[in-house]
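Appendix B, Record 12. Input sequence as logged:
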Amino acid sequence: MTIQEAAQRSGLTAYTLRYYERIGLIRPVGRDGNGHRDYSEQDLVWLEFLTKLRTTGMPIADMCRYAELMRGGSGTAGERLEMLEEHRERVRSRIAELAQDLKALDHKIDSFRARV
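Logged structural output:
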């Protein structure tokens, strides 16, 4: 699929897709007969995972390291697992912080409603 189609399906911009390719987050994308990028379904699956990592706050540098390890094959599975487990703990911690923040907001809203 073209870069525009991949952008639409992934929710990322064409600029972001080119950037991800340039910094090594995605493998060099195949080209069609005219030399245009030709994204595969497998590319979209990887982009979806990268989007989840980014949305949950993983730094780009860590994402690049993870992508590098992926290209290293099954011998890097242990290190990848460790990275994901550490990231999961950071996400859980952030969720707990957000839950506390939400309680504070709810309390403030309830205070305003009681006065209005």
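The first helix runs from residue 3 to 10.
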